[in-house]
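Take a specimen:
=====
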Amino acid sequence: VQLVESGGGLVQPGGSLRLSCAASGFTFSRSSMSWYRQAPGKEREFVAAISWIGGTTNYADSVKGRFAISRDNARRTVFLQMNSLKPEDTAVYYCNYNSRYWGQGTQVTVSS
C-alpha cells in the first residue's frame, strides 16, 4: 500500500488549497478513504472521509462548510478542497486507508 499526498503549501487566511492523495497497492475503488491532520503539539485528528462509492461523506465540525472531500476512482486519487482557510487549519495533512495505512503527509500553513 502506498499513499502519496501533494498540494500543501503556504496560503493567506481566507485562501484555498486542494490536496491530492494518490493511492496504490489495494482496491481503491472499493475502499473508503479519509483525511487527517496533525498540528504542532497536538494529536492527529480526523478531518474528512468518503465512502468507496463516493456518495457518503463525513466531516469534522471544525471544517464543515469549508472543506470538501472527493475522489476519482479512475485516477485512484482522493482530494481535499479547502476553502476559507484559517490559521488554525495549519497542520500536516495525512491521507488514510483502512485506519492502518498513512501517507507521508503534506504541510499546510495558513498565515499572513
In short: The chain has a mean pLDDT of 96. The longest strand covers residues 17-24.
